[in-house]
Amino acid sequence: MIELKNVTKSYEINKNNIVVALNDVSMKIGEGELVVLRGASGSGKSSVLSLIAALSKPTTGEVIVDTKQISKLPDNFASEYRRDNIGFVFQKYNLITTLSVKENILLPLVPLNPDPDDADEKLTRVMEMFKISHKKDAIIKNLSGGEQQRVAIARANVNEPKIIIADEPTANLDEKLSLHFIEMLKELKKLNKTIVIATHDPLFFGLDIVDREIEMHNGAII
Amino acid sequence: MRKKINFYLIEYAINAILRQKYKNIFIATTLTFLIFLLTSIFFITNSIKYELNSTVDALPEIVVQKIKAGRHYDIETHATEEILAITGVVDAVARVWGYYYFENAGVNFSLVGVDEFEAQYKESLQRVVETSELMNTQDSSMVVGRGVKDTMQKNYYKDYFNFIKPDGTLKRVDLVGVFDGDTQLESNDIIVMSKADVREIFDMRESMATDIVVKVSNPDEVATIASKIKLVFPDSRIITKNDLKISYQNIFDYKSGIFLALFVVSLFTFFIIIYDKASGLSSEEKREIGILKAIGWRVDDVLKEKFYEGFIISFFSYMIGVILAVGFVYIFQAPLLQNIFTGYSQLKTSFELPFIFDVQTLFLVFFLSVPIYIAATIIPSWKISTLDADEVIR
Ligand SMILES: Nc1ncnc2c1ncn2[C@@H]1O[C@H](COP(=O)(O)OP(=O)(O)O)[C@@H](O)[C@H]1O
Ligand SMILES: [Mg+2]
Known about the structure:
The complex is a heterodimer of chains A (222) and B (394). Chain A has 222 residues and is of the alpha/beta class. Chain A has six helices and ten strands. In chain A, helix 4 crosses helix 5. The longest helix of chain A has 16 residues, at 175-190. By secondary structure, chain B is of the alpha+beta class. Chain B has helices spanning 7-19, 21-57, 79-84, 123-131, 146-154, 184-187, 195-202, 222-232, 241-278, 283-294, 299-331, 342-345, 359-385, 389-393; strands at 62-68, 71-73, 75-76, 89-102, 107-114, 141-145, 160-164, 170-179, 190-194, 208-209, 211-216, 236-240. Chain B is elongated and about 100 Å long. The two termini of chain B are 37 Å apart. Classes of the chains: A alpha/beta (222), B alpha+beta (394). Chain A binds chain B through residues 50, 53, 55-57, 75-76, 79-80, 82-84, 86, 88, 90, 94-96, 98-99, 103, 106-111, 113-114, 119, 155, 159, and chain B through 3-4, 6-9, 12, 15, 19, 287-288, 290-301, 386, 388-391, 393.
């Protein structure tokens, strides 16, 4: 389903300063699998997630999803790929804080010009699934961290993607809310989604719903 | 297959505008004012140009006056015969007219004499002769322009007026009609009566006239014919339509220079707004574009949304600005701005800006504002949206 082949990723900060974020990384993630990427801060976890979501391109190597070369997609096709396949729960949520819950969740559907009934149905479904319906008209910046994360997850699921990606999902949550998040993960796993989570939160280690843990260090898998 | 209009995208654009309410209200107000100013300037200039042209068009091609020691004197009517003999001349008519100072109101009226059996040098006069009661009454009578009628009425003259002759005696003339001229400028202060009555009021001999107007068969020959008349009557002054056109035009050009300055100032202000908009996005705006890209918007989805934002603001400002300009210029007759054209009112007393629906101006102002504003909205977003989303939202 998802495959990284000898991927390196380096960022050029300036002429004589190049950061190698990933160094010859290869991995395979099967359909319906829940994989946790673990490792210290700066080990390259977020960079892997960006590559899988086609938010950035590898410096060398290939990223293949469903037999498609994601790493070679022109910008507009990369957008469509994300729109149709990826639900990304960002570390900082990346919600538009001046818009309402409802408006944020609908954002991925806007370019598709959906039928209003269809859009409403999708909206209601994800808001109920992630228990945020009661706040649907609230403005994001007035919500708590836990509520904002629910909105982020609802938005990631509104387009019914096959792949769910979450970057440090519990970093801003207390333990109770973190356990809630794991409950939500169970729901998604039931729907046979392929899930990739980057985290250094020990809460995830050895969890029964986690199929595999991949440990990273200094831009490489160990 | 083309899809129907994406109202979700439009709704998002409206939301985006409302989220920066004060900034956008400021921009829209400024834009509206500039569009209003620009459109008003064009409207006024065009109206006056139109009015000038029709005034000039109504003027005779050649006027012959008699000059002695630089002063204007009455001319002998039989001079028309010699002028008619010049090749290229179609008609020569002796005019009997003059300014009559109406002391009570402190204004000048133009007294114009007409003769039933002569061709009139102007169509509007011909109409007066044909349609009014002027020539059918026994007593002295007159037909007047609307402005004259109003002025007389204010001074309690309803059915007649007593003109004071040079020897101090009175001449009573009955008012038998009111007429409208071809243009505002010429008709307002005119009094038409028979040549005999005008001569009596000004104490002019029967064999004399005020001036002679000449019609030529080919307008290109005006200059040649003018110099031939000058040869025959060395003591005459020949005024051609072209001379008048130039002197009118001079007043106009001088005045429109002031408008040009206003025009430049408004364009300048507009480009400052544009520059400010085009020079970059706030980090908040950049992040928003990055988020949209990250959740699956394509570059053109982002640009479409920005297009709607720019279009809504600029088109709204355009419509309001144009509507305000129409109201200001044609309904309220451009207070303040019209005063810049006071030189104009020296030509004649009362003056109204005629309504000219000028599509060209509307197009010009549109293309000077709406597309430029939209471009200034889209271009910075376009730069950001083509970057890797990853870079933008980090
Ligand atoms: N856009 C970027 N520009 C420059 N350096 C980057 C960029 N993204 C990541 N890095 C660097 O790459 C390395 C790996 O970062 P990241 O993938 O975010 O690791 P992790 O998510 O495990 O903390 C870090 O040293 C980080 O500073
Ligand atoms: Mg990270």
